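Let us practice reading a record.
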Amino acid sequence: MGSNPIHFGTSGWRGVIADNFTFPNVRLASAGIAHFLLSRSARPRVIVGYDTRFMSERFADCAAEVLRSHGIETLSTSRPDPTPAISYEIIRSQLAGGINITASHNPAEYNGLKFSSGDGAPALPEVTKAIEANVAKVVAGELAMTGTKSDASLRQSCDPRPAYLEEMRRKVDLRVIGQAKLKLAFDPLYGTARGYLDELAREAGAAVHTLHDCRDVMFQGVGPEPSEKNLADLAQYVRENHCAVGLSTDGDADRFGIVDADGAWIQPNFILALVADYLIDVRKIPGGIARSVATTHLMDAVARYHGVPLYQTPVGFKYIGELIKEDKIVLGGEESAGLSIRGHLPEKDGILACLLVAEAVARRGASVKQQLAALFKKVGAVENVRINLRLEPDVQKRLLEKLKRNWEKFDSRPIRKIDRTDGLKMILDDRSWVLMRPSGTEPVVRVYCEAPAQPELDRLVAAAKAFVFEP
C-alpha cells in the first residue's frame, strides 16, 4: 500500500470529494482515531456528526461503522448539526471525543473530518500526530483497519440540539433582544445553523427572516464562507427591509458573518473587539482577552483600556481553547471569524457570536457601525487586511530564506519588535504591523497588515508585496 493520505491541518483533515476525500480514506482516518481512543480508554464513547455537504451523512455512517467494529460506542446524529453543538454534547455527556464530517467554510467540492478531544476542543497537534502515526501503521498492516467487536448495542442515536439551545439561553440575554423588537435577517448559507440561530431569535420575540433556508450541497456555487462577496444577498435583504442587523454562519456554524443595518459587511476583526468591549463594559464579565498572532491589535487596545491581560496564541483556535479551559479570558478570537467566551466551549461558535452581536445592538440601542465609531473614539482606530500571495517556486524558496533573517527595517522604517509566534511578524513604531505566514500545504504566503489609517495600510501592503516578490 502507498503512503499515508491523511494529514490534519489547523482544523481537521480536508480533501476534495472523490479525489482524496473518499470512503477508503475516511475508514483509514477513523481507524487511526479508533486506535488512539482505545490507547486512552478501555470503553470510549464518541459522537459522530455531519454537515450539509454532498454525502456527509454517508461518510459519517462509514466512520461510525469503523469505530463500532473496534468496540467503540457511537452516538450518531440524525440531522446536520453545527460543530459547536457537537462540541457541547462531548462535554455534557462526558464523551471521549467526537468526529464531525465537515469541511467548514471550504468550497462545495471539499469535505473533511474534524476530530474533537474529550474536552470539546479541536484536537491539539500531539493528538493529530498520534492519529496520523496510527494511520501509517494501518496502511503498513501493523494495526487493523477494522475490528471484530461491532454489535447493535454500540450504536446510539443522539440529538445535540435541545441541550445546546438550552445552553445558548444561559449564555445570551434573549430577553433583551426580544424587548428591543429587533428585526433580524439570518443567512446560514445552506449550512447547519438552520433551526438553531433563527429558532432562538424567534423564541426571544425578534422578527427573523432566514435566507437560503434549505440544503444545497453546491451552496449556490459560492461556498459556505460568510465573506463580503458571499453575503451580498443578505446585505440586500437587510437594506431593503430595514433590518437592525444581518447575521450569518458558515457551513458548520463555527464562524460568523455580520452585516450592519446599511448593508455594509463588517470585518470579523472589528466584531471580535466590539464583542470583547461589550462583555467587559456592559456584562461586567471578568478576565483577559485572547487573540491569535494574526488577529487585530484593536483587541490589545480594548484590553489596555479596561486594564485586563492580553494573551497571544499561534494561529489555530485550539490554542485559544486552552485559555477558555483555564478560565482566564472573557473572550478569545481569531481574525478568520472564530470566537468563544468565558464559561463556554473551547471551540469557535458562530451562533453564539451572532447572538451576542444582536444582544449588543439591542442593549446599546446602536447599530454595529455606531458602536465601532464609539469604540475607535475610546481606544483608537485601525484598518487591516489579509491577502494571499501565490508564489512561483524560485520566489517561494527566496522568501523562506528572507523570513528567517532578523530584519532591522521594513519599508525603510525601524522595526520595533520581531515576533515569530507563527511566521514572521514585524511591528513598527506607529502601531502598524505586518505578518507573513507561508502555507504548509500550498505555494502561498498569507500576509496580514494593520495600520492606524487607510493611507498607511495601503503603503504597508505595497511594501509587503515588494518584500515578497523583489529579489
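A brief commentary: DSSP finds 15 helices and 21 strands in the chain.
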